Each structure stands twice: as C-alpha cells, then as structure tokens.
From TrEMBL:
Protein name per the record: Alkaline phosphatase D family protein
Gene3D superfamilies given in the database record: PhoD-like phosphatase
UniProt cross-references to InterPro entries, sorted A to Z: DUF7800 (IPR056702), Metallo-depent_PP-like (IPR029052), PhoD-like_MPP (IPR018946), PhoD-like_sf (IPR038607)
Domain DUF7800 as annotated: residue spans: 1-91
Transmembrane portions of the chain: none
Lineage summary: Bacteria, Bacillati, Actinomycetota, Actinomycetes, Streptosporangiales
Residue ranges constituting the PhoD-like phosphatase metallophosphatase domain according to the UniProt record: 139-226
Pfam families, alphabetized: DUF7800, PhoD
Signal sequence segment: none
Amino acid sequence: MTALVLGPHLRHVSHHTATIWVETDRPCEVRVVGREHGVDAAARTFTAHGHHYAVIEIEGLAAGARVPYEVLADGETVWPEGDTGFPPSQIRTLDPAGALRISFGSCRRSPGTVEQFGHDALTSLAERLRAGGDSVVWPDVLLMVGDQIYADELTDEMREFIRAHRGPGELPVEEVANYEEYTYLYKLAWYDDPAVRWLLSTVPTFTIFDDHDIRDDWNTSYTWRQQMWSQPWWRDRITGGIGSYWIYQHLGNMSPQDRASDPVFKAVRTASDSTGDAGAVLDEFAEKADKEPASTRWSYAHDWGGVRLIVVDSRCSRLLTADRRGMLDDEEFAWLDDQCQGGMDHLLIASSLPYLLPRTIHHAESWNEAVAGGAWGKTAAKLGEKVRQAADLEHWAAFESSFRTLAHDVIAVGRGERGPAPASISFLSGDIHYSYLARVTEPGTESKISQVVCSPLRNPLAGVFRWANRLAYARATGWPFRALAKLAKVPATPLRWRLTDGPWFDNAIATVELSGRDCGVRWETPKDGGRLAEMARARITG
C-alpha cells in the first residue's frame, strides 16, 4: 500500500483556491477529498532523485471555507493516519470580510531536547489550536521566514542517517552533502512531531529560505562564493539544497496560476513522465539558479483583500560579482520596485534578514562593507572580508546601496506618491534570534513604517551573544560606529528609526493582525511546559 512520506501540507490559499503538497513512497495518483463540501481534486506524482511528490490544486471554494479533508493514494486513504488525537485537517480559505492574521517566525531547530533548544513555538501553537478548536483565534496564514532546516548544524538523528548512507571520509564533515540528505532533514523537521505535522496540514503556510537552509553565511560576499565553489563537494551540496528547497518549500508558495506558467515545473513533470525521474533536470536548474541569480525569482507577492504581502528572497538572488554588490540582482529589484505600490490598506514586506537593525549593528555593517570594498585600502579590505564572514555582517545594512534604494521606494509609497498611502508599511523578519519592534521616525510619511522581528521559533541565543546584542541595542553604542562609517565615506541613511519594544530572547511566534486600517502585533512564547503565553503586544497604527 502507498504511504505518505511527508505531508499533507496546506500551502498557498486564496479566497477561493487552495494547494495541498505531499510526498509519497511510490508513484501514484493523489486525491484530496472533502466529502461534506463536494471537494474532489487529484494529481499524479512526479519523481526527482527517487522521491515522489504531488501538488493538488483545489478550486471553486467558498471564501472563509473550513473544509475537512482526506488524502487518498491510488484510492486508499493515507490521511488521516488512524486516531492521532488531533481534529480533522481542514482546507482553510481566506475571508475578505474578516481580519487577516499572519503568524510568523524563523530559526527552528528540530528534533532536539528542551534542554538543548527550549520548547518549540510551532508545537505550542499546534497544541493550543488542537485543544481550543473554534474557541481560540486561529492564524489565517503561517509565514516561516528562514532557517526551516539547519543543513550545517546537525542533530544526532541526522548524523546517524549520514553514517548509514556515506562512505568513510566523504566530505563535507558535519554538514549535509546532497539532495538525499536534504530530504531527510525535511522529514526530521516536519514529520516526527505529530503536532507540527498536523499544524502544517491545516494552517496555510508560506516560506522563504535563509542561510542555514543552505549553509551559514550563504552568499555573504563574492569572496565567499569563490571559496565555496573551490570545494570539490560544493556542487552536489548547492544543487541538492536549492533543488530540495524548490520542491519542499517554493512550489507551495506559488499561486496555481504561477505554477501553471512556471517553466521549471513543466520541465520537471515532463522529464518525470518521459524518463521516470527528473533529478537531472532539477540539478541543472538549481546550479543555474545559483550561478545566474537573475535566471530565477524566488520572491513572491500575494494580495489578500486590502493587504499586499511581498516576500523577498534576500539570499539566492544577491548580486555578487568582483565589481558589484547588491542584496538583490537588478531584475529582482525591478520586480520589488513594481510591487511597492500604494492603494492597499497595508503593505507587508517579509525578508528573512531584518531591514532595520539596531543602529549600532547597522552602522557596524555599513562601515564593514565600505572597508571590505576598499575604502581604507587593500590590506584593510582583506581584514574587512575576514571580519564580515566571522561576525555575520551580511544584513541589508551591509548592502548599503540596496538599503538606500528600498528606503526611497518605501518613502514614496508612504507619502502617497505611488497611489493612496497604506495605513502601515511593515517589514517582517527573523534571523537574529531575538525579537523587537522598531519604528521609523524620519522622514515623515502618511504610512506608519515599522520593522517587526520574531526569532527564534526554537533556537535561543547563548548567554554571551545575548549580552552582546543587548549592548548593541543601547542607543549610546551607536555613535562610535556611525563615526567609523562616516570616516569610510558611508552616507547618512535616508531613514531614521528607533527600537521601541524589546529585545526579547525567548523562543517566540508573532502574529500581525490587520483589520481595515488597523494593524497590531503580539509576540508569544512557550511557557509552563510549552503553553503559549503573551510576551508583548504593540499597535502599529492608531
């Protein structure tokens, strides 16, 4: 009998459509059935590197629908898997008449013990929804903004898998090496915890990758890329990482229309049908996506009523050459510029890396970029590159021209120069393993501009790093680094901002709630054996 390897995952939803993603243990027809609501949709699996996947698109749903569903493989029920203690999984479409709630976070280590990583905010959210049912408020969307897996920080379970599948002495040590090992990382992250598996089956989920989904400091600089491609094992590693991301994460971010027109999806399905396995096609695509970032767009945008969510790839689409450096390549930035428009009640820009950092860190990174770029000579440039890689100086502030370009776009939207100004423009980010709210104070705009950070879901900072970041949070530590930046001829920033709430260093999940022209956010952390408790809340507008 066919079995599920991973899933079902409820991915892209709109007001009238939904997407279900699954991995099965053999080729088959996968059918999603919602008997009470007349739902019946099916798709054949496609195969890549011996793994079998299906993307099932359901259309014609009512807005705000709650449709219990089953998954069948070749006519046999494979989900739900017996009495799990969890309610039936539901297809949950968006309701334009109600508030929109987006829960988000990043940086989740799994598996592992509470002593290692603390309680899992995703598990805690699942348990609250399971226990509370319709009596508790559900998120409409779950957005995971990076480090869904850790390909370079292995758990004991992953090490055991590698020992069983590799020959002695094979590289890299203490890191995954190829597509097959990536698939097991995803299984560990999303299968072994029943609560998280159920959560992903019943709450619409969107993702974007960050560095640990591939490797720490991924694409931090041109020098870093040269160093990695000089390693004999890197090609299998990067093609496995990007290829698996495309299947396990990116496919579900796309709308049905985007998938239908996606040439890679068509090529993979065609190769699977004709040769039985699309692994070679996937590898070729993944290598090109790494070597020619402009060939692929990982960023995406969705409009839900009066809300536009723009999710920006701040990793794979970087412009890194011997002569130029940008957070995004030219094509990606042109796309982002087109998406930054008014006429919405709220504009959300999600980037795994915070756009507005504590001012101390921002100035340190912009100074380092200038020095590494030669502002103080060749010898200082070499030292600056070493410092950049050692200290992870690779956020938006370390791409000063990109930071400046996006700032001008946001200011134009906030002043109503691109259509009626939204009530709020909010950056949603993770990565740095603590949470905070920053508000833009200058220049003045009609829109309230803010940075909302929530990190980690499950991977807290060690004590010494907490101390260092608390110090960076202090306003008094910012001016020496601004002075250094000025000495390196870094211009003043177009925006001024102030951190008003936080920092908080606990595992957490944040929820942004948008209703009409109102916007607010709350952070929650697992307490008392994993029960979610409110850590803080703030109004963005009003």
